[in-house]
Every structure is written in C-alpha cells, then in structure tokens.
C-alpha cells in the first residue's frame, strides 16, 4: 500500500470518528432538551386547542338527574385567562329547599406522544368563580390524571379541594414520570356540589384552567442523581434515592445550580414584572425583576404585544442579578402607536433564560401615560 493511500485512509477514519462523535453529541443534546406537551403547552389563546369534555353529569345527591334544572359543560372561554383564554368546567343549577346537586365534568387534552421518557413536571393555572353557590356551602375540587393510551394505564398526578373563589389564576405543579414513545392524554376531573339547602336559587360554578403543560426533559424536575452534592452530607433528601447527587441537591434541577422550566415560569408570572408600564411619547418603560428564589442571574427579554402574534414594541434583552430589578425601555412601533395609546392594559411577552433553562410567559400590565 502506498504512503499516499495509507494517509488518505487514516484521514477518512479520523473524519468518521469526529462525525460520529458530533452526531452522538447532537443526539445527546436533543435527548436532554425539554419538551412540553400537548403542542408546547395549552395556553388557550384563541381556541380550545383540541381539549374536550368527554364525560359530564349533574344530579341530585343520591337520587335522580335534575334534567333541565342542572346544566354542565366543558367549554372554551375567551374572556378569562392569564392572558385571556382558558378551558372551563361550567355548572348551572336551579335549586330549592329540597335539592342539593352534584356536578362532575371531565376535561381532556388531545393525545400526544412523548419523544423521550423520564421525570416530567405538570404545570397548570386554575381559577374558581362562584355565583349563588357561595350561599349553599360549596365544595369543589379537581384531580389531574395522566392517561397512558399506549399501555392502557393511568396515574393520579394532582388532586386539590377548593372551597373559596380565587380572583386571579393560581399556579400548581406536580411531578410524574413518562415512558418514551408512549402516547398520553391529560384528564382533569372536576366536581362542584352544594351541601346546604336554600330557597329557589340559580347557582353557577366555573372552574377554569389555563397554561396547562407537561414538561419532559431538562426543563422538568430531574430525577435522583441529576445534580451534584445534595443538601448536607446525605444529599438532597438523605442517603436514599435522593442522596448525594439527588434531584434537590446543590447542583440538581431544583438546587442552586439549576431550575425547572415550570418553576421558572411560575416565579416569572408572580414576581417578575413590577408595577405599571409607563408610556411617554414613543417610549414604553417596564420594570422587571429576577426573582431571588431563582438563586441565579437571569437573562430577560421583554416585548410589548398587541396580541401573542403581533408586536407592539421593539424587544430589549438584559442580564439581571437575582433579587434585582431593571428598567427596560421599549420603543413603540409606528404601526402600533395609535392602538397602544387607546389601551388601558398592554400584553407583554417575557422570555427568561437561567443557565440552560428557558421559559416564556405573557402578562398584561396597566398602562400609565406621562
């Protein structure tokens, strides 16, 4: 074999090794990337996004159905949400001194197939609105079930009891595991019932849900062994499964070295945008904060929006230290100036990056003119 031929063969082998390593690294990166289901998460911005109400019943406790005196539906509502748009279990009942009703509505997401298995985080925001039912000793609640349509099994993920109205949407998170390649659906089983009798009264209950998503991968809660040192000598929760290098350890997904995307989203919604947006001429000033509970510096990007798909302002990006605030000055786009001037509130898109974790939230702020 000639020297030139031997040299060309050696180069080909080396190139193959480098290409293989690159492909492996790319595959590993894709496998660890976070994915949110169904379809990136259900924000209900403009439609029900494939959600339905496959089961519903409303009846007198222990007797027969109320028929036309009791109505229940699973329905999309454009008015309520964070931002506007949500899917709700709606109940309307006409009760009297002899009747106590119990309404159950099941809400279900479209099916989705997860590309990778492992730990996952369910995030949702819910609101309970009552009319008349307040006088009837209301008992409401919901349970979230993950249906594995591939294996025919189901997992209870979250269960909450509600006895009071909530003026705003409240975020909730829960951990669960999924199997790669399996097809799933989320079910939310809701119940609203009266426990006290009264005179003739029309009572309604609306249990609304928004920003529902199951995040799988690096954006979800990492499992045991994901992090570095744990809290103390024993790790995250001691020497067991979440011991040294456990999920809640000092380098784990929820420790000082990382944060889940659902946790990041929740903190942004409740703590990031501060006060009102101030409009002065062509410029819009917004204050944003990197929540101290993130335990790391945030890279924040802000933009004013006429709606989720149409920008009202330019965008600005800045690094903000944990617990600190920063003023973002955004320039209102010429085509949007007339509409912005007429608005009492404006929608803002905020994108935050902390390490390798990224989250996007939308919030409406009161608009003040100077």
Distance between termini? 83 Å
Cα-atom Rg, whole angstroms?
A: 25 Å
Order of helices and strands: HEEEEEEEEEEEEHEEEEEHEE
**Helix/strand/pairing class, anyone?**
mainly beta
Mean pLDDT over the residues: 77
Query: Strand fraction band?
Result: over 45%
Low-confidence blocks of residues:
17-31, 62-67, 219-257
Identify the strand order in the major beta sheet: 16-15-18-19-13-14-17
The helical percent reads 10-25%
Number of helices: 3
| Biggest sheet architecture | 7 strands, mixed
Number of beta-strand segments: 19
Q: Which outline best applies?
A: globular
What layout of secondary structure does this protein have?
Layout: H1 3-32, E1 35-42, E2 52-60, E3 70-81, E4 84-95, E5 101-108, E6 112-113, E7 118-131, E8 139-148, E9 153-162, E10 170-178, E11 183-193, E12 201-216, H2 261-271, E13 273-280, E14 283-289, E15 298-307, E16 310-320, E17 325-331, H3 337-342, E18 345-354, E19 357-369
Parallel strand pairs: 13-19
Antiparallel strand pairs: 1-12, 2-5, 3-4, 4-12, 5-11, 6-11, 7-10, 7-12, 8-9, 8-11, 13-14, 14-17, 15-16, 15-18, 18-19
């Amino acid at each position: 074999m000639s020297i030139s031929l031997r040299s060309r063969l050696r180069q080909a082998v080396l190139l193959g090794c480098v290409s293989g390593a690159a492909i492996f690294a790319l595959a590993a990166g894709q496998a660890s990337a976070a994915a949110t289901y169904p379809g990136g998460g259900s924000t209900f911005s403009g439609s029900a996004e494939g959600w339905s109400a496959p089961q519903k019943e409303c009846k007198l406790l222990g007797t027969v159905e109320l028929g036309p005196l009791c109505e229940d539906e699973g329905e999309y509502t454009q008015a309520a949400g964070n931002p506007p748009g949500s899917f709700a279990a709606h109940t309307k009942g006409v009760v009297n001194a002899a009747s106590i009703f119990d309404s159950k509505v099941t809400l279900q997401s479209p099916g989705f197939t997860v590309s990778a298995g492992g730990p996952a985080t369910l995030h949702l925001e819910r609101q309970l609105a009552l009319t008349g039912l307040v006088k009837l000793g209301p008992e409401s609640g919901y349970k979230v079930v993950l249906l594995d349509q591939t294996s025919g099994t189901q997992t209870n993920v979250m269960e909450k009891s509600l006895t009071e109205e909530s003026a705003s949407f409240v975020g909730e998170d829960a951990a669960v595991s999924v199997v790669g390649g399996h097809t799933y659906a989320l079910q939310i089983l809701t119940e609203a019932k009266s426990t006290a009798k009264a005179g003739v009264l029309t009572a309604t209950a609306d249990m609304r849900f928004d920003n529902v998503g199951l995040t799988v991968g690096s954006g979800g809660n990492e499992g045991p062994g994901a992090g570095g040192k744990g809290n103390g000598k024993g790790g995250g929760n001691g020497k067991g499964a979440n011991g040294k290098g456990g999920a809640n350890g000092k380098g784990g997904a929820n420790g000082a070295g990382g944060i889940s995307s659902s946790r990041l989203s929740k903190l942004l919604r409740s703590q990031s945008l501060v006060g009102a947006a101030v409009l002065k001429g062509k410029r819009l000033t917004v204050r944003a904060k990197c929540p101290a509970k993130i335990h790391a510096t945030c890279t924040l990007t802000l933009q004013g929006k006429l709606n989720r798909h149409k920008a009202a302002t330019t965008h600005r990006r800045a690094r903000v230290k944990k617990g600190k605030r920063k003023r973002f000055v955004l320039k209102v786009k010429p085509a949007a100036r007339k509409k912005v001037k007429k608005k009492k509130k404006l929608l803002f898109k905020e994108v935050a990056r902390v390490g390798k974790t990224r989250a996007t939230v939308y919030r409406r702020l009161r608009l003040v003119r100077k």
